[in-house]
Amino acid sequence: MNKLFKISYAVFIYAFLYIPIAVVVWFSFNNADRSLLWHGFTWHWYGVLFQDSDMFTITLHSLAVGTLAATFAMILGTFAAVCFYRYRFFGKKLFFGLLFILVIVPDIVLAIAFLLLFRTINVPLGFWSLLIAHITFCLPFVFVTLNSRLSSTNPFLVEAARDLGASESKIFFRVLVPLLLPGLLAGWLLSFTLSLDDVIISYFVTGPSFQILPLKIFAMVRLGVSPEINALCTLLLGFTIIIVLISQLALRKKW
Fold this sequence. Notes:
Blueprint: H1 2-27, H2 44-51, H3 53-86, H4 92-104, H5 107-120, H6 127-151, H7 156-163, H8 168-196, H9 200-205, H10 213-221, H11 227-250
Helix pairs in contact: 1-11, 2-11, 3-6, 3-8, 4-6, 6-8, 7-8
């Protein structure tokens, strides 16, 4: 009975998580416009999606912002995590806590803060304001990921490298970076995902001249969920699965 309960519980959890996603994928092939009834199989909505040049441009915008935000957040988060790990300075605990607070601050608070900041310093809302905001809210997640990785690292490795005559740059690039590679990859993927699906902060800091995918989907859903949106979500799901598989293959090596 105990084994049956565990299996049933696992089936229920996975069904609760994945059945809605399966429904989205299923209805992306539905031969009907905004209908929750099955009317036959078709590839029509994928053809409509690929012929939509505006949607293609908006998708490129989102991928560009997500890639740049994740990359810059990974670089800044790496330097921050290494500094907190290796050095002592005044206010270290305070700054450490402030980085963790940003992880749990509601998005609406950050969105209004970014909007007021950009208005105060006269930064036009568009690509650069969106990129700066995404880098800022992705940075704490990279820091938390790398900090947990460094906390489990043997501290004597750095001392051994220093005793062998390694400079600070060699310690960073030849000792710490190889140890952090799994965390770097995880932090980059997490930042890319957060940037790609952010709606609240992006809504406040994106101007009318620059559109991204989450806001476009949000505007389209107001008129009802069409099969074209289902097709787009299915492609994004496939893209996510590919990234996860690539990351798993990259992490097969034991660091």
